[in-house]
Amino acid sequence: xxxxxxxxxxxxxxxxxxxxxxxxxxxxxxxxxxxxxxxxxxxxxxxxxxxxxxxxxxxxxxxxxxxxxxxxxxxxxxxxxxxxxxxxxxxxxxxxxxxxxxxxxxxxxxxxxxxxxxxxxxxxxxxxxxxxxxxxxxxxxxxxxxxxxxxxxxxxxxxxxxxxxxxxxxxxxxxxxxxxxxxxxxxxxxxxxxxxxxxxxxxxxxxxxxxxxxxxxxxxxxxxxxxxxxxxxxxxxxxxxxxxxxxxxxxxxxxxxxxxxxxxxxxxxxxxxxxxxxxxxxxxxxxxxxxxxxxxxxxxxxxxxxxxxxxxxxxxxxxxxxxxxxxxxxxxxxxxxxxxxxxxxxxxxxxxxxxxxxxxxxxxxxxxxxxxxxxxxxxxxxxxxxxxxxxxxxxxxxxxxxxxxxxxxxxxxxxxxxxxxxxxx
Length: 425
What we know:
It contains 14 helices and 14 strands. It has helices spanning 48-56, 98-110, 152-167, 190-201, 209-215, 220-231, 256-267, 274-294, 303-312, 318-338, 340-351, 375-379, 397-412, 420-423; strands at 26-28, 32-34, 41-47, 60-63, 81-83, 119-133, 138-147, 180-186, 239-240, 254-255, 360-362, 365-367, 383-385, 391-393. Helix 6 (220-231) crosses helix 7 (256-267) and helix 10 packs across helix 13 (397-412). It starts with 25 loop residues before the first strand and ends with a helix.
């Protein structure tokens, strides 16, 4: 872009009273230019301080027509162009995840590494006034709005972190207003901003949750799940950590994403400190090992064995792991109250009630609690008729609640009564 063929760039820079170059409202330093004309892309680095100043002078904007937009239930006329200087958009009107932005803000202030580069800017051709100094590798922006085709949440998080830091700098020793961020500057028409947003947010094939959870070290529940696998022999080489589906060719008992959700329910929280992760992982691993002793199907089996189990039983179905999460939760409470040894003895006895050799009754049916033929599961909405004629397993919230309730009743039943119509009328 030696001589930019983009409407908005002037041939000569503005001058100040002394005759030297006027650097404008924002000076982009040490720019690197790729491509020409409409294909031009400029990259450079800015600091938090520069971002704050650009926002306060109302240079940074989002256009909700080509962003996540206004909530569909809002029928009144509202502003589509929002200045970043106003802070977070009103979540009652606009689609904006304040929780996600706040999480980024907290990590920035704590000095945790956060992969939020690059920030994305756009100057719409014909709607800005700037000068490109090729020799000095600078762009002086005199007027116009800089739109964000993407990275709105990231910008808001950085700006909020900067404002919080300025109000109490001594409280955040790991943050600095000179912290740098890479910017990609485009020159797109409004319609192409929408195309950019689509390409970046809709076209990519999302990574399976299990693989993403396996890779990250920043998600506490994922770290916990991997620690549980490490501590539970029956889960070694028995968890699908790559995809979120267990196919007929996959003998693994559970996916990492399902195990993570199980532990999320069991722990009733999504964040831990390091000592809490180790402690809860040992508790969960102990209960899971007790489960595997009474239900060997939850351990390592061959492909053919796993196929047969899935054909006739729900014991290793993803929804049952929600029930097992309730067992982990209850076991954890007993560990606190009774100590690990006594809690383990108590639950060893309780889990005997779900052995395959325990015969349950429901009307004319009798057999293993987890058999798909058990009418209880259809009555509770866990199994429903499928298009092919085979029953399908529900995994919605209502079904999960029913599974948790049923498994808790069975485990707590210290009588000899195995009539499910009486235990769960």
